[in-house]
Design goal:
The chain is an alpha/beta fold. It has a domain of about 140 residues: Rossmann fold (3-Layer(aba) Sandwich). Helix content is about 45%, strand content about 15%. The strands form two sheets. It has a five-stranded parallel sheet. It has a two-stranded antiparallel sheet with strand order 5-6. A hairpin with a 6-residue loop joins strand 5 and strand 6. Helix 2 packs across helix 3, helix 3 runs antiparallel to helix 4 and helix 6 packs across helix 7. Bound molecules: zinc ion. Zinc ion (ZN) binds next to loops.
Length: about 220
C-alpha cells in the first residue's frame, strides 16, 4: 500500500517546547523533522551557495531573506527523506513564508495537511523562560526547576558560573511574546480559514502534550 506524504506545521510561541515535540511527532509518524534554524546553521557551516548568501546577511546583522531560506527548503523537500512528508518546526512564522512553503509543496503535488498550534498561557511561558540559566563559556542551557545544574549554580560541563541572559529577563520575554503574536495571528487565521488549524493545549508534561498532538493528527487522512 502506498501512503501519501503528510505535511505538518507545528506552531507555538517561544518557550512552548516546539523543538522537542516536533522531533517526537516526526518519530511517531515517520516524517522528516525540518527546523529552518538547524537547516540554516547547517548550510552556513557547510558553505553551500545559499549558506554563504545567508552568512553575508547574518554578518551584517540582518535577517536572512525568506527567499534564501526558501532555496534551502526547496532542496530539502526534494530529498529522498522528505518524500514521506515533514514536520515543520516553528516554520512558517508569517503568511509570506506560508505562501512560499505552499508554492514549494505544490510543485510536489503536496500541501499542508494540518497546522498544530501549541497554546501556552503567557504567564507560564514567562515562568518557564525566566528560569533559564546559561553557561557563558560553553553555551549549555539549564533551568532552575526543570533541568538544574548539579551544584545549583555552576555548569555541569565546564564549571563556569551560570548567568541569566538578557533575552531571558522578564521584560525581554514579554516583548518577544508580543512580537510573536503580532506576526502569527494572521498565520493562524490563514490555517483556520482552510479548516486545518488544530489548537493544542501546550501545558502539562511533555508526554501529555505529545498525546494531545497525536490526537490532533487523528483528523488527518493519509
Ligand atoms: Zn559550561
Amino acid at each position: 500500500m502506498v501512503t501519501r506524504a503528510l505535511d505538518v506545521v507545528l506552531l507555538g510561541p517561544p518557550g512552548a517546547g516546539k523543538g522537542t515535540q516536533a522531533r517526537r511527532l516526526a518519530e511517531a509518524f515517520v516524517l522528516l523533522h525540518i527546523s529552518t534554524g538547524d537547516l540554516l546553521r547547517d548550510e552556513v557551516a557547510r558553505g553551500t551557495a545559499p549558506g554563504l548568501e545567508a552568512k553575508a546577511f547574518m554578518n551584517r546583522g540582518e535577517l536572512v531573506p525568506d527567499e534564501v531560506v526558501g532555496r534551502m527548503l526547496l532542496r530539502q523537500l526534494h530529498s529522498q527523506q522528505a518524500s514521506v512528508g515533514c514536520v515543520y518546526d516553528g516554520y512558517p512564522r508569517t503568511t509570506a513564508q506560508a505562501h512560499l512553503l505552499d508554492g514549494l509543496l505544490a510543485e510536489l503535488n503536496r500541501r499542508i495537511d494540518v497546522a498544530l498550534f501549541l497554546d501556552v498561557p503567557d504567564e507560564e511561558l514567562v515562568t518557564r523562560m525566566a528560569g533559564r540559566r546559561s553557561c557563558p563559556a560553553c553555551g549549555s542551557v539549564y533551568h532552575l526547576t526543570a533541568h538544574p545544574p548539579k551544584d545549583g549554580a555552576n555548569c555541569d560541563g565546564c564549571g563556569s558560573g551560570l548567568v541569566l541572559r538578557d533575552d531571558d529577563h522578564d521584560g525581554a520575554i514579554r516583548e518577544r511574546l508580543r512580537v510573536y503574536k503580532a506576526a502569527t495571528a494572521p498565520l493562524l487565521d490563514l490555517y483556520r480559514g482552510r479548516g486545518i488549524l488544530r489548537e493544542i493545549a501546550g501545558t502539562g508534561t511533555p508526554d501529555q502534550v505529545h498525546g494531545r498532538l497525536r490526537d490532533g493528527m487523528r483528523s488527518v487522512k493519509r
